[in-house]
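Running co-folding for adenosine-5'-diphosphate.
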Amino acid sequence: MLELIAEIWQTTKRNKLRTSLTGFAVAWGIFMLIVLLGAGNGLLNASNENNNRYVDNSMMIFGGQTSKAYDGLKEGRQVSLDDNDLQVTQSRFKQNIDKAGAIINEGGATITYGENYVSSSLQGVYPMFADVNKTKISAGRFINDIDIRDQRKVLVMPENQARELIPNNAHALLGKTVKVGDMAFTVVGLEQEDKSRMSSDVCVPFTTLKTIYNRGNRVGRIVFSFHGLKSEADNEAFEKRYRATINRQHRAAPDDEESIWIWNRFTQALQMAKGTNIIQTALWIIGLFTLLSGIVGVSNIMLITVRERTREFGIRKAIGASPASILRIIITESVVITGFFGYIGMILGILANLYMDATLGSKPIETGLFTTTVFVNPTVGIGTCVAVTIVLIIAGTIAGLVPALKAARIRPIVALMAE
Amino acid sequence: MIQLKGIHKTYFGAQPLHVLKGIDLDIAEGELVSIMGASGSGKSTLLNILGILDDYDEGDYYLAGTLIKHLSETRAADYRNRMIGFIFQSFNLIAFKTAVENVELPLFYQGVGRRKRHQLAMEELEKMGLTDWATHYPNEMSGGQRQRVAIARALVTHPKIILADEPTGALDSKTGVEVMQLLKKLNSEERITTIIVTHDPNVAAQTNRIIRIKDGVIEE
Ligand SMILES: Nc1ncnc2c1ncn2[C@@H]1O[C@H](COP(=O)(O)OP(=O)(O)O)[C@@H](O)[C@H]1O
Ligand SMILES: [Mg+2]
């Protein structure tokens, strides 16, 4: 093998310019492939990170408007979710639903502590809300079952809002009484702020908010986490069943798809994953096409080499070289050239990715409302490097195949007459 | 050693050219033979057939008792490697390899290890008086030296026959004489069957037997 490499070096030395021009095409192809895949990974990682804020296996249900006339009622009727819907959700789908709760919002609340105040909005929630929304508590606790049962006047506040009330030491607010409008509430927890979403609401017990603001039997949105729905088909079947049940409570057609809205984060994640695959495949295809011009170049240079070396191959055959050994010389040469320049491209591509990571990677972009990252870790893994190596070997073999077969078929007498 | 029976060869070009029209020839082991004939009479064609570089259309060719007919390229390459040493008019050394690397090459195709190969090649160069030139490239050597490298390459595998096509054709007369003396010496000392194609009567005169080709047949 070492001898083969030495021999390749001897022959490529004679065609430095041509070899390096072709090599550049291969290096460029691989460079593009790596940079594209790295940038793609950066985008995908960032969007994954943004999505990870929610628990995958949860659904949120919104009220809507009927789109079909049914049971003597016209279409276009408003459907609002109520206590009965929440109760049905909790009791009739035990097979799949773990915990169900509801959320109601109340905008425009002013919270006062001493001299300071902050304007915020309230949302009445169940304890399970913290799990579904991945709420991070930095001090104290979240709303609990006793809060719900006793309709306690307690609240959990985002840290940044707490800072407005006690500028130097937000955590000091814990346990203090604040005023919401003109009602006294006790601060039982602080929520770690998450810059990637729009300002969070102050959380209070669902039952407290419902009573204070006289919401009657309205529950706003229903939210629940579920299990045992593995595939998209499972989810669709479940959604259909759930929709029919809730629709019946409101005298809407069981198959009316607009009476309530179902936001299934699990199927959304599935579709994201599908999208991710499509993007990655597309990037590979673009990269491979870029590489193709390199392959054609190498193939061409090998053809020229074979023509130039016809006499040499004739001599080799006359003194005992088998066609297979000639084939091997050309293919190895092609693979070595492709591999050598490919690796140069790969290393440059990885360096470019690292540079992207250092400059753009994880850099938050301020949108005014919230911050987000466009690139998270825009690099390729070892797996990609291995795949690229295999691609290079295959590419080199393909590039060398036609020239090699040509060289192997040279008849020694013809070759010896060539000059 | 060599047995030809009714060998025919036609080149199918724009116009078919019937070059060999029934060659019958026996050459015994250890003979030193020359083949003579006018230019275009088919001397090289015959030598190429003997060297398994080319096929023939009709007849039988036995080399050391083996029928050489319709061989695959791989088999032909193997026979050439083990049984035949070639010496060409234009030397046919590989330009980007040194003298010793050129001599090693047939051994490489026999699968001989690197070290052994080098040792055997150096021994062969020493016999040719070229030890000091071992690491030189062909274009750094004179014609006579190149031809001696080519002879070393032909001999390094200890072939059964040496086939030389106008070995002195590209050399001045003095070096030509030296090369001929070398071939004669090898023939008498190592008893290698040697066949030399030439149109130089002085060369032919130094061989033990002269074969003349005319109109595609042998007239001895
Ligand atoms: N590969 C070939 N194709 C067609 N014709 C050929 C080929 N090789 C040789 N010839 C022709 O065959 C004849 C004999 O050639 P050759 O054996 O080389 O003669 P010599 O060596 O005696 O001068 C010549 O007329 C030559 O032109
Ligand atoms: Mg000739």
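Result summary
Residues B 11, 13, 17, 19, 37, 39-45 surround adenosine-5'-diphosphate (ligand 1) (CB under 6 Å).
The mean pLDDT of chain B is 92.
Job closed.
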